[in-house]
Amino acid sequence: MSGPCLRVVLADDVLIVRQGIVSVLEVVPNVEVIAAVGDATELLAAVQEHEPDVVLTDVAMPPTHTDEGIRAALTLRETNPDLGIVVLSQHAEPAYVLELFADGSSGVGYLLKERVGDPDELARALTAVSQGGSVVDPKVVDILVSSQQQGSRAVDRLTTRETEVLSSMASGLNNAGIAAELFLSDRAVAKHINSIFSKLDLGEVDDTHRRVKAVLTWLAAH
Predict the structure, then answer these.
(1) Chain-wide mean pLDDT for the chain?
(2) pTM, entire model
């Protein structure tokens, strides 16, 4: 990997896992772990102190060992909107992904911990979110949209304009932002989005989750 050094804050409550991830990243050029902490409170403090480019955090940390990493990620999305965030999980939890991506997909990633052993894959994920991109573990996408292949076929059913709208949606724009970017009326955007939901068979969930699933389908196909 070329370019300036990517500064990373890592959070995982299991010491041996934390040390292992640090060791993996030590072999990646231009990536530096500037802090490694054990819970969400320490994570938020480390981000404030060190101003990293990317956060790499476990989902489950003290005190409840449930979704502290997701809570911290959502907080950081509000307080540090330019910060890249990759959430690591032991299991594929679609509900966490839906929550994490509910406010847009820009600069956010969700990977299973089994990917951590591959330095190149981990480095690509960190780089992508630091540049405003998105990364979702293929196993999670499979659960949400049945399979990447099915997702690709569904996207192929979209018109050119619907594809543009979905691409803008995937970049994190709301309806007003999409309208401004594509020179459409708000009503036209809403109509295209409803058509997208229909063609992607997303008619049985609430609007927020339909948007997230549509974006994940787009990511799966690209």
Answers:
(1) 86
(2) 0.69
